[in-house]
Amino acid sequence: MNQIRYLAGKTKMKTYFELCEKLRFDDNNWKSYFFAEVSALAYHDGTQAKRELSKIGFKTYKFLENDGAQCHIFSDKDNIVVAFRGTEPKQMSDIKADLLAFKRKSKTEGKVHLGFKLELRKLWSDIEALLQKSKNKQIWITGHSLGGAMATLCASRLEEKTPKLYTYGSPKVGGKDFCAGMDVEHYRFKNNNDVVPSVPLWLMGYRHQGELQYINYYGNIRKLTTWQKIKDACRGRWAALKKFQLFDGIYDHNIMYYSNKLKGLIE
Length: 267
Fold this sequence. Notes:
Layout (H helix, E strand, L loop, with lengths): L1 E4 L5 E4 L13 H14 L4 H10 L4 E7 L2 E7 L3 E6 L7 H8 L3 E3 L5 E3 H19 L5 E7 L1 H12 L6 E5 L7 H6 L3 E7 L19 E5 L5 E2 L3 H17 L5 H4 L3 H10 L3
Parallel strand pairs: 5-8, 8-9, 9-10, 10-11
Antiparallel strand pairs: 1-2, 3-4, 4-5, 6-7, 11-12
Helix pairs in contact: 1-9, 3-4, 4-5
């Protein structure tokens, strides 16, 4: 087991890839769980991540790091995965990236969040070079929180390679033109009252891209109607208050909650 840090500020022990003795890229529920696990593992350094991934058959691995930005790239004979690390509360470059919410022209269409664009720029040339060596493999891109935002921008630049994108608790990345112009298969997960997908604000011109996969209080994926949103938000906040958790929206952002709930869908 390894330790992993979460935005809520706690350190917990976690065993990775418990249901990954066989890789099942043709199983949608399994993929949702697997990429949540990968996004959690992305918070570790290269040594620990390489060890865990090797156990489930990914022998080719590369850890990229530049001025606080990090991602893990690993592959087997058919697939290559790019996983971005999310926000570390003690990493000043991450805080700066989150706060630079000015929109600037994207590399594709429309405008995107300046901070997220600058974080991806730190790694982009190395990512491009590594993917160029794996032309015939299916590209999967994933990340949690800031990592989800970087993953979205990365996928938009690789659109011609038909990547598939899984993000968890991702903030909004760009404006309506960016979202409308991005043609990528994107599964965007939000856990109950997670506050991070609500920012940057709609009034600032930011929109979400991708197909929302809303995980309700009970751990099921549901269509987020207005009534569903109200009643489920109340369930989550009431349960949190009973445990004296005053900031339910922050606790729900924890990548472990995403992973555990999605794991429940395939057990």
